[in-house]
């Protein structure tokens, strides 16, 4: 992985008084005109504060939701974010409604040093999602240099994440982007060993590229979640009504043969007669799920085994919950693994959590601050773990030794 320039590499003169066009990820939930979870806005604050302290004039770009094909829809307006920003920054924030208007460029030119403007949803602009040159030019006119702090959008080649980075120079990473690349990239390219990956979630089909990419790099891969059930079935186990991908049994067999001892499956799990019948739950061996029962979590024996391996690790990457963590008590295995990561971190291991649901599970367990890094990019972190080049990262300027 080639290291990218970051805002920390910029000379004071390259920042002071200049318009920083900053792509952030403010794709936040909004209800009745109010932001209901400001985590992503807070995550961008270090970059905004840094540029502000250095006297830049800051112009923020983000998408929100999925408006159809460049057509403005009021429910996807970024306007509710303006109030949150003003509260967090303790100063007024200019809202630029139409980035295509001459007034928009004027507004950015009139920003005082250290002031902040927020531009309306990038997806209201035609050509944003098709990485169109004209859309990129329109965005580029709003800044003098480019900063990408939207790791969560970096897997998409859009005008505000990719094309614009070729038009505005320098094009550098923000502090959140830098942190994501440092932790995820560090684990994949230069891990302290033992290096352990923990994979779970619903489907093996969605994670097969992650498994293939990680297998040669890791010392161990621990598998949980429904994904494990597809492996159980491939090994001839009875899986009852558990979520199994029948059409991936061949794929699972190939992975098992290739991985050998590296791949560690649960010995057993927690089954029930349905997700809505938690009182029927009991523990069974991996190959003995009764007909009509489904496996919804890993069992305490597996938690202990996984916990020991995680406890001995120096680097841990976790993607995908160990069970149906959204429905207690089937969150027990996932919470226990989160705690194992926290304990390993306290002993000096680097622990990284990637994936939207895994991040939510660690938050839910109250352990987000006890692991080294929880990625803010769901889909982006998955593609990163698959070994893919993220277009929004590739487009940024390389750091020269
Ligand atoms: P991430 O978003 O972290 O990449 P995934 O989207 O791959 O994770 O998987 C998360 C989903 O997997 C959750 O909705 C969870 O309920 C589901 N899941 C995990 N284990 C099981 C299981 N045993 N049976 C059914 N669903 C499961
Ligand atoms: Mg998910």
Tell me about this structure.
The protein is of the alpha/beta class and 401 residues long. It folds into two domains: 7-178, Phosphoglycerate kinase, N-terminal domain (Rossmann fold); 191-385, Phosphoglycerate kinase, N-terminal domain (Rossmann fold). 35% of the residues lie in helices and 17% in strands. It contains 14 helices and 19 strands. It has helices at 39-53, 79-89, 102-109, 133-140, 159-167, 175-189, 208-214, 225-234, 249-259, 300-311, 332-346, 356-364, 378-385, 391-394, and strands at residues 19-23, 30-31, 34-35, 57-61, 93-96, 116-119, 145-148, 171-173, 195-199, 220-223, 238-239, 263-264, 268-272, 282-285, 288-289, 294-298, 315-319, 350-353, 373-374. The strands form five sheets. The protein has a six-stranded parallel sheet, sandwiched between helices. The longest helix is centred in the N-terminal third of the chain and has 15 residues, at 39-53. The chain is elongated and about 70 Å long. The two termini are 14 Å apart. The mean pLDDT is 96. It binds adenosine-5'-diphosphate (ADP) and magnesium ion (MG). Adenosine-5'-diphosphate binds at residues 200-202, 206, 225-226, 243, 295-296, 319-321, 323-324, 326, 355-358, 378, 382.
Quick summary:
It contains 14 helices and 19 strands. The chain is of the alpha/beta class and 401 residues long. A six-stranded parallel sheet has the order 5-6-4-1-7-8, sandwiched between helices. It has a six-stranded parallel sheet with strand order 12-10-9-17-18-19, sandwiched between helices. It has a three-stranded antiparallel sheet with strand order 14-13-16.
């Amino acid at each position: 992985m080639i290291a990218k320039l970051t805002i920390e590499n910029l000379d004071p003169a390259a920042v002071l008084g200049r318009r920083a066009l900053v792509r952030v990820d403010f794709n936040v939930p909004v209800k009745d005109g109010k932001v209901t979870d400001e985590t992503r806005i807070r995550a961008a604050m270090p970059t905004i504060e840094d540029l502000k302290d250095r006297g830049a004039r800051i112009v923020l770009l983000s998408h929100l939701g999925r408006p159809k094909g460049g057509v403005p829809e009021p429910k996807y307006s970024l306007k509710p974010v303006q109030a949150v920003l003003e509260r967090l920054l303790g100063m007024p924030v200019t809202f630029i409604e139409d980035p295509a208007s001459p007034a928009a460029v004027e507004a950015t030119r009139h920003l005082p040093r250290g002031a902040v403007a927020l531009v309306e949803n990038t997806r209201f602009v035609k050509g944003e999602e098709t990485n169109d040159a004209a859309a990129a030019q329109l965005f580029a006119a709003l800044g003098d240099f480019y900063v990408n702090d939207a790791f969560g959008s970096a897997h998409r080649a859009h005008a505000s994440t990719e094309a614009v980075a070729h038009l505005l120079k320098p094009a550098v990473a923000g502090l959140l982007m830098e942190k994501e690349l440092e932790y995820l990239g560090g684990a994949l390219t230069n891990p302290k060993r033992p290096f352990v990956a923990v994979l779970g979630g619903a489907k093996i089909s969605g994670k097969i590229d992650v498994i293939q990419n990680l297998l040669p790099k890791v010392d161990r891969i621990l598998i949980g979640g429904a994904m494990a059930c597809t492996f159980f079935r491939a090994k001839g186990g009875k899986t009852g009504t558990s979520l199994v991908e029948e059409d991936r049994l061949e794929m699972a067999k190939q992975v098992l043969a290739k991985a050998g001892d590296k791949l560690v499956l649960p010995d057993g799990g927690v089954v029930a007669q349905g997700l809505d019948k938690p009182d029927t739950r009991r523990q069974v061996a991996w190959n003995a799920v009764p007909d009509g029962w489904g496996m919804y979590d890993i069992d305490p024996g597996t938690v202990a085994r996984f916990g020991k391996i995680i406890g001995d690790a120096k680097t841990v990457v976790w993607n995908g919950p160990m069970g149906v963590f959204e429905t207690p008590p089937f969150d027990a295995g996932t919470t226990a693994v989160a705690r194992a990561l926290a304990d390993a971190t306290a002993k000096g291991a680097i622990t990284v959590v990637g994936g939207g649901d895994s991040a939510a599970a660690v938050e839910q367990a109250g352990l987000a601050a006890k692991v080294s890094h929880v990625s803010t990019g769901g889909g982006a972190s998955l593609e990163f773990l698959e070994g893919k080049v993220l277009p929004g990262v590739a487009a940024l300027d390389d750091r020269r030794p």
